[in-house]
Amino acid sequence: MAFNAENYVLPLEDYFQLALAEWNKIDSDNKQTWWTWETHDESGNKIPAADRMQHQYIKVIVPGAVIPPKADVEAKMLEMRNADIAELNARNDKTVSGKAKLKALGLDDDEIAQMYP
């Protein structure tokens, strides 16, 4: 079976908070949590905890922070997931290359499997 990096990364929706952390930084190394989630909607109805993590329920908790547009957050989520997929593919390519080089040196599949379980 061929390697598929998409089987080893988080689902796209799991990148939501990681993407939000990219906005409203104090500096490039400081990813502050500038948001939380609304607990009640505009009508005063309680929002179930399982439904709160949505763009429409972002609540700013750091003065001066702004909520990025939903399209920008979704683009950042996709960008971050694609970067993770590319990194996994690169690592897999190096593993495949390493195995081929070991085989060329005369190691058999069982010996290689001991190094690459």
Which sheet architecture does the biggest sheet show?
2 strands, antiparallel
Overall, the morphology is: elongated
Strand order of the largest sheet: 1-2
- Level of helix content? 40-55%
On the 0 to 100 scale, the average pLDDT is: 91
Supply the helix-strand structural class: mainly alpha
Kindly give the count of domains: 1
Strand content: 5-15%
C-alpha termini separation: 16 Å
Q: Low-confidence segments, ≥5 residues, pLDDT <50?
A: none
Backbone CA Rg? 21 Å
Put simply, the count of helices is: 3
Would you report the number of β strands?
2
- Give the helices and strands as they follow along the chain: HEEHH
Write the layout of secondary structure elements.
Layout: H1 16-20, E1 35-37, E2 58-60, H2 70-104, H3 109-115
Antiparallel strand pairs: 1-2
List keywords for this structure.
117 residues, mainly alpha, single chain, elongated
